[in-house]
Write a structure and sequence with these properties.
By secondary structure, this protein is α/β, with parallel strands linked by helices. Helices cover 30% and strands 29% of the residues. It has a single domain, classed as Nucleotidyltransferase, domain 5, CATH 3.30.420.10. The longest helix has 15 residues.
């Protein structure tokens, strides 16, 4: 089981969906929010909205989210963890282009990292099932 104590700051990042259910907007439809988190500190490095109809970040959005994360420490992590069932073709490709190893893991292995952030998002914006 993964745990924040296994990592140094900026050694590994986690990309995950913040919301449990889509966030509805009248004008633009339903969105999911993808967050990028440092695995050691559980600090949110950045986030990006993704229209539910698209399903995942575009290549441009993936590059922007990774650059947003990199801007905090001026370097790239060694590893990017993604949920095995999260669509992330472009995010994976961009991470690999930066020399980051992409590791797919079961969603339940990420809960220790992401649980508090998801709970805070749910309390502030809704989006629970």
């Amino acid at each position: 089981m993964l745990h924040p104590s296994q990592f140094q700051v900026n050694e590994a990042w986690i990309a995950f969906k913040l919301n449990d259910a889509p966030i509805h907007t009248e004008q633009d439809g339903d969105f999911d929010f993808i967050a990028l988190m440092d695995a050691a500190s559980c600090f949110i490095l950045g986030s990006a909205p993704v229209p539910v109809t698209r399903g995942e970040l575009t290549a441009k959005d993936a590059r922007h989210l990774l650059r947003e994360g990199q801007s905090h420490k001026q370097r790239w992590p060694k590893t990017l963890f993604l949920s095995a069932d999260q669509p992330a073709q472009f995010l994976s490709k961009e991470a690999k282009r930066k020399g980051i190893t992409v590791v797919r893991v079961a969603e339940d292995q990420l809960v220790v990292f992401t649980g508090e952030a998801k709970q805070g998002f749910r309390e502030r914006f809704g989006g629970s099932r």
